[in-house]
Amino acid sequence: MKKILIILITASLLIAGSASFAQELYPAQDQTREKGRYSQANRKDQKKDFAARAKEKQDLINRQRAEIKELRQRLNTQIKQIRTQVNNLKKQNSSLDAAKINTIKQTIVSVKEAHQALDSTQDAISRKNNDLRNARQHRRPEAFLRGLDEVIEIQQKRIDYLTRIVSDLDKLISELG
User: Fold this and answer.
1) Minimal CA–CA distance to 148: which of 81, 15, 26, 53?
2) Residue range 15-54, pLDDT digits in tens
3) Most-buried pick from 2, 62, 91, 136 (CB within 10 A)?
4) DSSP state at residue 125
5) With contact defined as beta carbons under 8 Å apart, do 155 and 63 qualify?
6) In sequence order, what are the residues at sequence separation of 6 or more whose Cβ sits closer than 8 angstroms to the Cβ of residue 61?
7) What is the DSSP letter of 96?
8) What is the DSSP string of 25-54?
9) Structure letter (DSSP) for residue 94
């Protein structure tokens, strides 16, 4: 038993001694470890920078989403108002002059065009959401940030189209009223 204990102690001393000896022979390994530490610190800074930029862009996307929702609610109330005005005109058997009818037709055409453009942006946002999911899964931060920028641009187009439709419907309401 004593022999086994002596052999284990001797073996542990030889292993520890050879490790410290190897460290003195190869000091370059320590430098690479320190470089690794610096790059890890740099990676942490890059991750923080990425997270801050992504958070800023996502906040903007959320604000734009809220604006789009508000515009859509406004559109719905305008559409209800137009329906009641049209029903009132039908009940009263009122006739509109040719100029008002022409203006109403032009407004309806403009609303239809804006609505079609709005539908195309919805498809674009769906594709960009898939691209964002793919970039996140494959850990491509620059592609993810570019995707967020593209979503922001598409949402801005949607806001512009919705604003155009709202103004056209305001014109229609004034013509019907």
Assistant:
1) 53
2) 545 444 444 444 444 444 444 455 677 778 888 888 899 8
3) 136
4) H
5) no
6) 148, 151, 152, 155
7) -
8) H-THHHHHHHHHHHHHHHHHHHHHHHHHHH
9) -
